[in-house]
Amino acid sequence: MPDSLTFRLMQELDLDAVCALEARAYEFPWSRAIIGGCTTVPYRIWLGTRAGETVHVCQAFLSITLDEAHILNVSVEPSLQGNGLGSQMLVHLIEDAREQGARQMFLEVRESNPAAIQMYMNHGFNEVGRRRHYYPTATGREDALVFGLQLRFDQI
Known about the structure:
The chain has one domain (about 5-150): 3-Layer(aba) Sandwich (Aminopeptidase), CATH 3.40.630.30. By secondary structure, the protein is α+β, with helices and mostly antiparallel strands. It has helices at about 15-25, 30-40, 85-100, 115-120; strands spanning about 5-10, 45-50, 60-65, 70-75, 105-110, 125-135, 140-150. The protein has a seven-stranded mixed sheet. It starts with a strand and ends in a 6-residue tail after the last strand. Helix 3 (about 85-100) links the parallel strand 4 (about 70-75) and strand 5.
């Protein structure tokens, strides 16, 4: 069973640690300016920490506008990937979006990331589109698959 995570929203003093994890997790990480800019708009930036530890091991950026949630970024400490931490974060994001009144949730994922694609599908997401040449690569650009999840089915 994977380590159980506790979640909290990012605070300004977390910026260095968030940028550092982003840099470790991605070949093309978001810049400090982009991450810092996310703190000035109403994004919900979640940090996941394992029991007994103070340093977070995963993080996610969630945007909620009206009744639509968009997962902008999920990062897991590279040495801990494949241990269910991203899945725990995803469940937390889904619950948070529902609590905030979102009816649907979307995200983009690299088409070359089968582990993430499978995780999203395991949680009920379906492919709903494609963004051509969305992500940078070492040799050019690659497509993003757009996934969606219906969070609520009640009437508008």
